[in-house]
Amino acid sequence: MGLLRDPALADDGALKIEFAAGRMPVLADLTRRWAESRPLRGQRIAACLHVTTETANLCRALIAGGAEVALCASNPLSTKDDVAASIQRDIGAEVFAVHGCDRETFYRQVAGTLDSLPTLVIDDGADLTATIHNERPELLGEITGGTEVTSTGVLRLRNMAADGALRYPLLPANDAVTKHLFDNRYGTGQNTIDGILRATNVLIAGSTVVVAGYGWCGKGVAMRARGMGAEVVVTEVDAVRALEAKLDGLRVLPMREAAGLADIVVTTTGNRDVITTEHMKLMRDGAIIGNSGHFDLEIAVAELTALATGRRQIRPHCVEYTLPGGNRIILLAEGRLLGQAAAEAHPAEVMDMTFATQALIVRHLAEHAGELAPGVHPVPHEIETEVAQAKLAAYGIEIDELTERQREYLGGWQTGT
After folding, report:
1. How far apart (Å, rounded) are the C-alpha atoms in residues 382 and 392?
2. Of 17, 88, 258, 413, which has fewest CB within 10 angstroms of its CB?
3. 136 backbone dihedrals φ, ψ, rounded to 5°
4. Can you name the residues that pair with 291 across neighbouring β-strands?
5. pTM of whole model > 0.85?
6. How far apart are CA 161 and CA 170, in angstroms?
7. How many CB atoms lie within 10 A of CB 329?
8. CATH of 3-179+346-395, one of 2.60.40.10, 3.40.50.1480, 3.40.50.620, 3.40.50.2300
């Protein structure tokens, strides 16, 4: 059953899951209510997610709601082996996740999860969805819908829909404000800096940090780096985002100019070849590069490996490459998702909102998927409102409500100057 590094690690994982649960009040309340109402009874859920303590608590909610859950890792370096063992032993999901596995084993884990014959899919990067459509089309008859939690995955799904290839309805959790505004900005911002510090222990203050991409993730990284005393330079291909970075007080340059200034470069674009070996040749000796996009394509790692005249691991998640000219480049976490691989992913307080949103989307799909055509559909606004209100209540925060007169004004058009 499942595929784990060592089931005996479960005791350690259980303590970490319990610690995270205490910081996820919205999801905990949902779990309590679902244990009574069982809105997911009869559903088989295949999930491809980072196997962390926060994901464990999502699995708990889904199983409390009546679902059977099979879980595989969405990134081999983000898996926590002790957490994976506890999810299977204590929570009851079937888990296929081994930290640091090779590509063949990664896709064996994906295949094992799909062998559960899912009716609903939860994806992070669209690997399950793509595998189902490309290699396991026989599963499509049972699957009524799915959801995707990351920007890169949503891009893949929209491209599938545009090509007419997507065969069931998808609700992108990443499009929900309660996900991208908080998870991408505050979660990615914090865990990326955390990953840099754990891997290198460098001083951020006084350094020049180049952030490639000024979407929500890039904004979060830039905000945290600037708050720690770095000079932040942004690179962009989008004119509006570049202008936003400028008006936020940041320097905006093309990568060919920014590369030579950088002490640290972080990619957050969701695209490929953002840092090439041509950029690396322009970097100063000892420049540090890392990626906070979902896939390990943003940094040209294979080309760097081929170009380098020397390679040595100098710290965990920290490999030094020597270029032909003698300059050294420090690559973090193999070019994979830095905050997940070298640190401990998003804080539980942020994932509380993301996974509560995800769980409510799954419930919505279980109840309404038959009404939705194949394609990418917006997340219902009431789901975002429910999560936001619950999170405010957990913080003990009250907000104002519109009066009836205000509602009438906002709904009308005749009152003017």
Report:
1. 15
2. 413
3. -125, 50
4. 267, 337
5. yes
6. 10
7. 26
8. 3.40.50.1480
